[in-house]
Amino acid sequence: MNEIWKNRRSSYQKMLLKYLRYVFNDHFVIALLFLFGAFGLSYSNFLKSLSGSENMWWAQPAVILFLLFILHTNQIATFLQEPDKVFLLPQEHQIRGYLKSSWSYSTLVALTVQVACYLLLTPFLLFAAKMSGLNIILLALTQLVLTVNRTESQITALFLPQKRSAKFEAVYSWLLPAVVLIVSVYLPTYIGAIIAILMLVIISEHDRKQLPGAIFDWRYAIDQEAARLARLYRFFNMFTDVRTVTPKPKRRLYLDRFLPQYSTDSEGFFKYLFWRAFVRSGEYSNLYLRLTLLCFIILFFIHNFWGALLIAAVFIYLLGFQLMPIFVVYDEIVFMHTYPINIQKKFIAFSKVLFSLLFVSAMLFFVPIAIQGPGLVKVLSALTLLVAESILIARIYSKTRLSKMS
């Protein structure tokens, strides 16, 4: 079983490297550099604005919510597959050794994520929450112990009989960690650390006594692993095609009234196809909505005008780049090459559709930038730059990019 786990971990890591090459392509890396730079500048300015403020009652609740949220970002990785419930069933007595390796791997990954996020939070703890260095270290210890405790509980949940109701999950996975974090933040921090360690000791002792006679739930464990991989594949699918992700088109009849109707001229014909490919395909419409809403929300928290404008410009570029495959979505249909249509009108129609989508996003991004009140000249400049970028991407950059795709 240990050999099986090592082979599957190796295959999993190769899969990650394969798709991460597409995620961190040249364009996205440049975009990330701008995003991190703008975020770092805004975060620094935000912390400086807090240095002289005393009434920051909201800092402690914000710390608790942040730590509670990142605590639930990790999930146990078992690498189990559908055929295992048949072919590995005779070796069920060795499954605990297999899960021990999974627990070690998943815990290491989870602790790495927690440490990275906590380092990001540390300046806020110093300037806003007004915590001392010792309390920050003790709170970090509490968070790491809660992380180990959560990974341990995920392993325990793979055995029968275990409570898996939503009520039990809400109490055990959310309420108890929230109480420990509240105690750590509002009371002496060492009390929360002691409670977290006691919880881990009690749960570990309970598992040591109960699990040897428990039955491994193959179906539940395989379903949990499949759900974890599905979320990972959906993320990769935002950047490249993933064979295991096949979004199903939806009719969305209620949107037909907003779409152009069928036209006999070539440009109208292609507009009709492109708009319906965008609306009815979950791959493109969901991606567009996610990126647009994400940027729209982020811009409300960035109070630096140039930083906000830079992030809005980067997201418009990302939207245009990710929507360009719509241009070739119908190319493999034989009727596109046999119908008497003017193929020269295809790019004109696509550029208009792409500009419409980028223009809507630009107007949404403009709202939080304008609300900050940077001045009439800056507001008009931001509007002009965002619209001009949308035009350049839809009319000029897309033509160069699509010539390589066709």
Automatic annotation (TrEMBL):
The keyword Membrane applies. The keyword GTP-binding does not apply. It holds the Pfam family EcsB. It comes from the Bacteria. The chain crosses the membrane at residues 20-42, 62-81, 102-129, 174-203, 287-306, 312-335, 347-371, 377-397. One of its GO terms (cellular component) is membrane. This is Protein ecsB. Signal peptide: none annotated. Keywords: Membrane, Transmembrane, Transmembrane helix. InterPro entries: EcsB_ABC (IPR010288).
